[in-house]
Design the sequence.
């Protein structure tokens, strides 16, 4: 499994380099034209990491992340594993009552109301299958108190995922808000 075989990325922030150039005006204009042609709310950004500029249309607005939010949970799991707070091989039992809403293909694995797996197995379900139940269970493993208690803490801005985002200075990302 690729997810469990990869080392956690080094998320330590580096000192930002000062912008050397402004974004090309034609790019900014093109982004605005593309975004304005979209029927709905949209934000678009392009960053040149070497030059240090960002061209954006409505780039300061926060948008719903949908399943991209599972990435922040995975990073928090890898961070906890790096710190020795858990192991990706830790066993987890998924139960019928752990099922959440919307997409949860892991439920097809339940036999007699349970499925035995590991944290890295849950990562696979969350990331490769966009499984909401697996993601919620991972949050519960990070924060304790099970998926429901962990989600309540996350909604209040607490818990391992928002803490990781703040500690690693990942930017204007809201997890569970």
Sequence:
């Amino acid at each position: 499994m690729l997810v469990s075989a990869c080392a956690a990325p080094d998320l330590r922030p580096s000192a930002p380099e000062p912008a050397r150039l402004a974004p090309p005006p034609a790019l900014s204009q093109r982004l605005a034209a593309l975004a304005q042609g979209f029927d709905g709310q949209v934000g678009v950004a392009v960053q040149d990491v070497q030059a240090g500029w960002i061209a954006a249309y409505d780039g300061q607005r926060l948008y719903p992340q949908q399943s991209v939010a599972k990435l922040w949970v995975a990073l928090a799991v890898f961070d906890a594993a790096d710190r020795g707070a858990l192991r990706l091989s830790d066993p987890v039992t998924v139960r019928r009552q752990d099922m959440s809403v919307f997409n949860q293909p892991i439920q097809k694995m339940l036999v007699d109301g349970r499925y035995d797996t590991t944290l890295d197995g849950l990562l696979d379900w969350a990331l490769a299958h966009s499984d909401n139940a697996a993601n919620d269970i991972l949050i519960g493993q990070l924060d304790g108190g099970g998926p429901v208690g962990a989600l309540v803490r996350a909604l209040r801005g607490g818990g391992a995922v928002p803490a990781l985002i703040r500690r690693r200075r990942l930017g204007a990302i809201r997890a569970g808000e």
